């Protein structure tokens, strides 16, 4: 079902040049979008829309890692609590007309920490500052760099990858013999074993298609274990931090020696010891580096004081302080580089998101194998970043799940390298389809199986033998509750322009309280999904002020579908949100997002929506009919308590 029209090209170079042009257009669009928001509104309007925090005062500045500075700022107003910032967000710090790009490291109600690369501008300490949500220049810079590298004709290895992956070179049906020392765990099914064996034996590339619940990540972990055991240096990459954390966790479970690159603010707390920064801090030279950093802080403070009381007599002394500071920074950089090289040499696999694989630490590193998981979410230019560092390439994903996010009107970038390789390698030995799922009840599986997977997925026997937790409240593990006629109309937030449906949100929370009483939910974890952030916010507010508050803290997760990619819950409640007289459903038309939402539940899936609005779309009409014929179709009125 996931099809994208691909323009035809005469050769691979022409295709890459076209891709480079598309990528630059996307970069320009995102940059202009942010600039227009900043320049088109005054500070108070930006604060209200959640893209600005102001006023802020500098509390402290410390020299950080890799020639960057950690700046702690105090939030001087209580009007900034409802904002769109999160840890790891790219930002722009400003004072009057001056700006400097940075990244947000930590944020609370009273304080935030940012990381600034390079030198700190003088204006930063001259008074009140603010931060704007911005876009990541690094993402586009590194993507363009990878594509330009791909255009080089003198590197035979790169040229071969370009020709083969894009379909301009015929695939050779060659696999090495599986080493006799390899003993694959007995719990893997035939399609999984095939994937693991080919991960080890393929000479150049492999595509693993892993539909929901088929154990793709477990397959990758087993393959990685054996590749590392054979002495192969392995680079693991994903487009998202959450997917990378999952691979890191699996690598730890396999008793490997992984290290994860990237900002520690984007890493789960229990995985922090396995990050590069934590490894550096634990190194024997760390104390000396900390001493150098303190010296750098003290010298910077002295130089800044000279700036505040500047006159011609102090110019040479201030200049000498900056010279001394730069000398210490160079010493720190060289010491850190020595430690980083040692850590990279001693650890395997190395983990990095597509963009963080461009880290200077890996500049001259060559890997035997690169594995990209959730590859369907990788914009093609970014996928090439880790690929160009490696000999053998393995891409894993599912083209019927979440695509990359594209902001501009031109959707050609939605056609990812994973999609191209699936099409180009069709019917070849370079593709493995995992065909057995272990997650969901068959009633939950069957709609997506028919719509997206041509009924190729079968359920393991263990799924068929489960007890039915939906009884006695529901008659099936898949339920559609129809809100038609209830008056639960959608509305648009004035501030964020996102859609919400307060009536449907209230109904969902009341339904959850009924389910808690009738289905013994205390034993099960629950996910609540909505397509719009404003609806998520509304549901969170309602749950946190209801009788479910303690239950919410322990067992309920509420978020958009993006946060649930690659994950599962015992019970999923899905708020469709849209309800209007025109039958408009917005980006619910991205059926791949719906596929992910429908396939997260192990035991019970409850979809709440307005059939009058949804059934105008053929896909949702088929879904409602499926629930009527194969699941449990109910009216919201059955659960409304006066």
What can you tell me about this protein's structure?
Helices cover 39% and strands 19% of the residues. The chain has 642 residues and is an alpha/beta fold. The protein folds into four domains: 40-135, Beta Barrel (Elongation Factor Tu (Ef-tu), domain 3), CATH 2.40.30; 154-258 and 350-436, Rossmann fold; 281-345; 438-638, P-loop containing nucleotide triphosphate hydrolases (Rossmann fold). The protein has a seven-stranded parallel β-sheet, sandwiched between helices. It has a six-stranded antiparallel barrel with strand order 1-2-5-4-3-6. Strands 20-19-21-22-16-23 form a six-stranded parallel β-sheet. Strand 4 and strand 5 (111-117) form a beta hairpin. It is globular. The two termini are 43 Å apart.
Short account of what is shown:
This protein is α/β, with parallel strands linked by helices and 642 residues long.
- What CATH calls the topology of the largest domain is Rossmann fold
Decide which structural class fits the backbone: alpha/beta
Amino- and carboxy-terminal Cα gap:
43 Å
Strand order of the largest sheet: 9-10-8-11-12-7-13
- Describe the largest sheet: 7 strands, parallel
For the record, what is the CATH homologous superfamily label of the largest domain?
Answer: P-loop containing nucleotide triphosphate hydrolases
Helix segment tally: 20
- Amount of beta strand: 15-25%
Number of domains: 4
Helix content: 25-40%
Indicate the topology.
Elements (H helix, E strand, L loop, with lengths): L11 H28 L3 H7 L2 E12 L4 E8 L14 E6 L2 E10 L3 E7 L11 E5 L3 H14 L5 H10 L24 H12 L3 E5 L6 H14 L4 E5 L2 H13 L5 E2 L15 H6 L4 H23 L6 H32 L3 E4 L13 E6 L7 H8 L2 E8 L19 H8 L6 E3 L2 E2 L4 H12 L4 E2 L1 H4 L13 E5 L8 E2 L6 E2 L1 H18 L6 E4 L3 H12 L4 H7 E4 L9 E7 L15 H8 L2 E9 L1 H4 L3 H13 L1 E4 L7
Parallel strand pairs: 7-12, 7-13, 8-10, 8-11, 9-10, 11-12, 14-15, 16-22, 16-23, 19-20, 19-21, 21-22
Antiparallel strand pairs: 1-2, 1-6, 2-5, 3-4, 3-6, 4-5, 17-18
Helix pairs in contact: 1-3, 3-11, 5-6, 6-7, 9-10, 15-16
């Amino acid at each position: 079902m996931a099809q994208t029209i691909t323009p035809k090209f005469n050769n691979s170079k022409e295709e890459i040049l076209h891709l480079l042009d598309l990528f630059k257009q996307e970069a320009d669009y995102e940059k202009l979008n942010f600039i227009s928001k900043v320049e088109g509104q005054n500070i108070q309007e930006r604060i209200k829309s959640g893209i600005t925090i102001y006023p802020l005062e500098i509390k402290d500045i410390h020299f950080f890692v890799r020639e960057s500075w950690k700046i702690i700022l105090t939030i001087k107003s209580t009007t900034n609590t409802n904002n769109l910032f999160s840890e790891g967000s790219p930002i722009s710090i400003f004072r009057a007309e001056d700006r400097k790009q940075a990244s947000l490291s930590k944020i609370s109600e009273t304080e935030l920490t940012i990381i600034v690369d390079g030198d700190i501008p003088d204006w930063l300490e001259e008074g009140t500052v603010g931060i704007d949500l911005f876009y990541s220049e690094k993402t586009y810079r590194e993507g363009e760099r990878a594509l330009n590298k791909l255009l080089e004709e003198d590197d035979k290895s790169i040229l071969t990858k370009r020709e083969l992956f894009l379909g301009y070179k015929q695939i050779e049906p060659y696999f090495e013999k599986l080493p006799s020392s390899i003993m694959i765990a007995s719990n893997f099914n035939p399609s999984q074993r095939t994937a693991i064996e080919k991960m080890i034996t393929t000479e150049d590339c492999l595509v693993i298609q892993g539909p929901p619940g088929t154990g793709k990540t477990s397959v990758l972990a087993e393959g990685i274990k054996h590749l590392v055991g054979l002495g192969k240096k392995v680079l693991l990459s994903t487009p998202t931090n959450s997917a990378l954390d999952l691979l890191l966790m699996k690598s730890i479970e396999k008793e490997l020696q992984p290290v994860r690159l990237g900002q520690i603010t984007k890493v789960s707390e229990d995985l922090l010891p396995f990050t590069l920064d934590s490894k550096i801090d634990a190194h024997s030279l760390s104390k000396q580096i900390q001493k150098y950093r303190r010296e750098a802080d003290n010298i910077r403070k002295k130089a800044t004081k000279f700036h505040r009381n500047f006159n011609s007599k102090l110019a040479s002394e201030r200049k000498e302080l900056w010279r001394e500071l730069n000398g210490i920074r160079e010493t720190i950089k060289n010491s850190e580089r020595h430690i980083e090289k040692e850590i990279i040499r001693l650890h395997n696999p190395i983990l990095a998101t597509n963009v963080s694989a461009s880290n200077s630490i890996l500049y001259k590193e060559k890997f035997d194998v690169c594995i990209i998981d959730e590859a369907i979410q990788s914009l093609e230019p970014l996928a090439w970043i880790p690929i160009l560092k490696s000999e053998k390439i393995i891409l894993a994903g599912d083209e019927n799940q979440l695509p990359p996010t594209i902001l501009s009107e031109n959707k050609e970038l939605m056609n990812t390298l994973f999609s191209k390789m699936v099409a180009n390698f069709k019917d070849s030995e370079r593709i493995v389809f995992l065909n057995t799922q272990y997650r969901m009840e068959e009633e939950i599986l069957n709609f997506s199986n028919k719509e997206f997977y041509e009924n190729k997925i079968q359920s393991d026997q263990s799924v068929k033998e489960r007890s039915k937790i939906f009884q006695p409240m529901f008659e099936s593990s898949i339920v559609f509750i129809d809100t038609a006629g209830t008056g639960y109309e959608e509305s648009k937030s004035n501030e964020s322009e996102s859609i919400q449906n307060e009536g449907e949100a209230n109904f969902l929370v009341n339904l959850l309280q009924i389910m808690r009483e009738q289905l013994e939910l205390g034993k099960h974890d629950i996910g609540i999904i909505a397509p719009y952030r404003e609806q998520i916010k509304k549901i969170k507010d309602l749950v946190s002020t209801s009788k479910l508050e303690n239950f919410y803290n322990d067992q309920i997760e509420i978020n958009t579908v993006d946060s649930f990619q690659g994950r599962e819950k015992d019970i999923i409640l899905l708020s469709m949100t849209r309800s209007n007289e025109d039958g408009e459903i917005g980006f619910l038309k991205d059926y791949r997002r719906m596929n992910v939402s429908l396939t997260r539940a192990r035991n019970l899936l409850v979809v709440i929506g307005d059939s009058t609005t949804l059934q105008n779309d053929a896909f949702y009409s088929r879904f409602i009919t499926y629930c009527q014929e194969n699941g449990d179709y109910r009216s919201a009125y059955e659960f409304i308590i006066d």
